Amino acid sequence: MNLSKIIGILGGMGPSATVDLFNKIISNTPAISDQDHLHIIINNNPKIPPRINALNPGSETPLPELIKGAQMLQKAGADFIIMPCNTAHIWYQEISNSIYIPFYSMITNTVDQTLIQMKEKNPRVLLLATHTTINTRLYQHAFQQTAVTLLIPSLTEQLVVNQAISSVKAGLIKTNPYLKDLNKIIDDYANKGIMHILGGCSELPLLFPYLNEKINKLDPTLMLAQFAVSKSL
Question: So which residues are the catalytic ones?
Answer without folding.
Answer: 85, 201
